[in-house]
Structures are given as C-alpha cells and as structure tokens.
Specification:
Number of helices: 5
Radius of gyration: 17 Å
Number of domains: 2
CATH architecture of the largest domain: Roll
Order of helices and strands: HEHEEEEHEEEEHEEEEHEEE
Number of strands: 16
Distance between the termini: 13 Å
Strand order of the largest sheet: 2-3-4-1-5-8-7-6
CATH class of the largest domain: Alpha Beta
Length: 257
C-alpha cells in the first residue's frame, strides 16, 4: 500500500494530510505522544496552524478552528495539482463542489482548495511551491495510504475524469478499487454499501504506519482516543481504525515484514 514520496507529488496523488480541531494544544500532545511528532508554526493566515515533523521532516498539518466554527473534526486528504484553479473548474464541471478557494495558503507554500466529490466526500487540492507535500511517508508515524470509503465505487468515474486515474479491482477485498497514476497505486476506493456510518457519510481515511498496530490502539485509548474498528490482519498488514480525543478518525497500519 505504500507509495513513494516522489509518486505522491504526481498530479492527482495524495500528497498531504491536514486536520482542523477545536483544541490545538491538546491535539498536539496526543499526536506527539502517539507518533513522536514535533511541531513548528505554519501559515497563520486562517488562524493558528502547525506543521508536524517526524525525524525533522514534514508529515502533516494541524490547525485550530475559530471558537464559533462547530464543524465535525476530520482528517483531510490533499491531492497534488499543477494548477489548482484549473482542477477546481474540472471538479465543478464533473459534478463536484468547491467549498473553499482556490486561494494562496501563504506567500511561500502554495495554493489550495477544499472540494467534495458528487457523493459528498471532502478532499483538498494542493498546488505546492517550495513545499510540495509530505516529505516523509511509509515509516512508523507517517502517512502510508489514503482510502475513500463510500457507498459504491461508481464515484471513481469522477476521480478518473478530474485526475486521470486508472482504476483496478483489488480481488482480495470485495468492491475495492485501487487508483493508479503512471502505473503506481496511489490510493484506494472501498464501497461498503449500507455499512457506511450514517454520521460520517462518504469520506477519505488517512492511514498512518505503525510498528505494532495492537500497541498503537492501546496507546490511542490511553491518550483519550477510542478504538473504532478492532485490529485485523489483511493482505497489506495488520490494520485498525481509531479516533483521536476530538473524534477525528484515522487508521493505523503495521505493514508485513
């Protein structure tokens, strides 16, 4: 499931993950204790925002919502783009919605937008300047995979049209497709039908690599988070779904070998 950092910068590939929360300081403490992240200030144009670092390299971003913004807290997967404005027009033309932007994140970083597909799954666009995306992937504590969980995989027609993905069925999992760019898998789409949680709706899920899934789940609960889906063995490793203390859902994956 791992994608190389260079592949993640290919237009259309997941390149960054970001989280907006109500209590930034408490959230920093949680992910620092869980993944060993350190934090440095990021762009402040839209409120307090930090970039998370692992082994001195950027892996994610976390911002703080304004007190009056009572939004559901969730990780957002950003897809790389060479031209965020053109991609936003394609999204609209293919039945999606652009809720924010495109706009400049700051003078140095790049241009971004927040959009959703025709079924309502939220994702970001990132047109990087100097910072083109996560600098570290696939190692414990860093992003390793991104997956769209939806009712049925027909929504991939939207992503194919906008981002040029090739889709391939994954035989070991029912109604599961992998999205490929330049012959490499970059993300997955899992159709779960009526098993889709009503409260979350269709959504993108970020997978973080860990060295021991069961230990990571225990640590999540010790730190005030919760286990959402128990650990299980898959063809790609041992995986569990968890949530942080504010309810942001993510997966932890212990890869084989």
């Amino acid at each position: 499931m791992t994608t190389e950092a260079t592949t993640r910068r290919t237009p259309g590939a997941p390149c960054w993950v970001s989280l907006m929360v109500h209590d930034l300081a408490t959230t920093e403490q949680f992910y620092s204790a869980l993944f060993g992240w350190e934090f440095k200030p990021g762009p402040q144009h839209f409120g307090p925002y930090v970039r998370a670092y692992l082994h001195g390299r950027e892996v994610a971003g976390i911002g703080e919502l304004a007190p009056d913004r009572q939004l559901r807290v969730a990780w957002t997967t950003y897809l790389a783009s060479d031209d965020a404005d053109a991609a936003a027009e394609q999204i609209r033309g293919c039945g999606g919605t652009v809720a924010v932007g495109p706009l400049d994140a700051d003078d140095e970083a790049g241009r971004m937008a927040i959009a959703s597909d025709p079924q309502g799954s939220v994702f970001g666009l990132w047109q990087g300047k100097e910072m083109v995306g996560a600098a570290l992937v696939g190692v414990p504590g860093a992003p390793v995979w991104n997956e769209l969980v939806t009712r049925e995989t027909g929504v991939t027609a939207f992503y194919e049209a906008v981002f040029g993905y090739e889709t391939r069925p994954e035989g070991s999992v029912p109604d599961y497709l992998t999205l490929h760019l330049k012959g490499r898998p970059v993300a997955g789409v899992h159709g779960v039908g009526d098993a889709l949680p009503r409260e979350s709706g269709p959504h993108w899920v970020t997978y973080f690599a860990v060295s021991d899934t069961d230990a990571a789940v225990r640590r999540v609960t010790e730190l005030g988070g919760q286990e959402v889906r128990a650990a299980q063995d898959t063809a790609y490793g041992r995986v569990a779904t968890v949530a942080d203390p504010e309810g942001a859902v993510f997966a932890v994956l212990q890869q084989p070998g």
